[in-house]
């Protein structure tokens, strides 16, 4: 994987909603507070260091620049649909503390989407938070903690939230189970090696049968647009566009 392609490419990360709360307000709103990202807590991507992937963590200063620029961010469900809240309207508030990226909003219970979310959270159907971002700066280290562009330990130094989102999601707790993240890696195999190798790569990922079937269709679509003998290298943005992810 060409790591330079990760800079300015859309990415998402999810974590369990272990530290969140809904609190009823006076009137027709309920207050939501929770962390969309936590600092200095490593998580594996693409299987982790032992399987050719890497471990990633978020630096405590990663959101400083983007939050000062008043980014346009939506609060969504599963990164899709109409917003439950938005920074632009002043209904969504983002800031950081010593723990991570803190989300605060007063959700209008008259909104049918909010009503559905509350019910599903109470049942445990929606139990995680995720945020969409673009990497502006990162560093890589080896197992000894030394700076190493070929190392397997990534730290996000600066990210942009503008045009991104914070979402309540029902994806797997491990970020490498997200179809969108894994597909980006598999698409590179299509571009450089061919469809068969990409499908072999997908077999080693923790995808549901429906996700695997969808990935196969999209890989086939992308493979038709690539001349394998030329070993064309696609950017992540181009691969995502061509595969309609």
From TrEMBL:
<keyword id="KW-1188">Viral release from host cell</keyword>
<feature type="domain" description="Prohead serine protease">
    <location>
        <begin position="19"/>
        <end position="182"/>
    </location>
</feature>
<dbReference type="GO" id="GO:0008233">
    <property type="term" value="F:peptidase activity"/>
</dbReference>
<keyword id="KW-0378">Hydrolase</keyword>
<dbReference type="GO" id="GO:0006508">
    <property type="term" value="P:proteolysis"/>
</dbReference>
<dbReference type="InterPro" id="IPR006433">
    <property type="entry name" value="Prohead_protease"/>
</dbReference>
<keyword id="KW-0645">Protease</keyword>
<protein>
    <submittedName>
        <fullName>HK97 family phage prohead protease</fullName>
    </submittedName>
</protein>
<dbReference type="InterPro" id="IPR054613">
    <property type="entry name" value="Peptidase_S78_dom"/>
</dbReference>
<dbReference type="Pfam" id="PF04586">
    <property type="entry name" value="Peptidase_S78"/>
</dbReference>
């Amino acid at each position: 994987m060409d790591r330079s392609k990760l800079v300015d490419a859309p990415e998402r990360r999810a974590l369990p909603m272990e530290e969140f709360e809904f609190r009823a307000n006076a009137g027709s709103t309920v207050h939501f507070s929770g962390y969309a990202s936590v600092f200095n807590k490593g998580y594996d991507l693409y299987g982790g260091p032992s399987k050719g992937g890497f471990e990633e963590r978020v630096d405590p200063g990663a959101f400083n620049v983007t939050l000062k620029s008043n980014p346009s961010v939506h609060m969504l469900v599963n990164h899709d649909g109409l917003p439950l809240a938005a920074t632009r309207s002043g209904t969504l508030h983002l800031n950081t503390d010593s723990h991570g990226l803190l989300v605060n909003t007063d959700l209008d219970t008259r909104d049918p989407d909010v009503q559905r979310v509350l019910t599903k959270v109470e049942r445990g159907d929606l139990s995680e938070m995720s945020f969409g971002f673009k990497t502006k700066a990162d560093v890589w280290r080896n197992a000894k903690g030394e700076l190493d562009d070929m190392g397997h330990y990534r730290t996000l130094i600066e990210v942009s939230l503008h045009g991104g989102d914070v979402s309540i999601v029902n994806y797997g707790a491990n970020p490498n189970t997200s179809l969108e993240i894994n597909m980006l890696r598999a698409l590179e195999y299509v571009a450089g090696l061919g469809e068969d190798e990409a499908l072999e790569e997908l077999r080693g990922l923790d995808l549901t049968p429906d996700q695997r079937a969808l990935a196969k269709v999209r890989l086939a679509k992308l493979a038709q647009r690539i001349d394998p003998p030329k070993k064309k290298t696609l950017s992540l943005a181009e691969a995502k566009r061509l595969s309609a992810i």
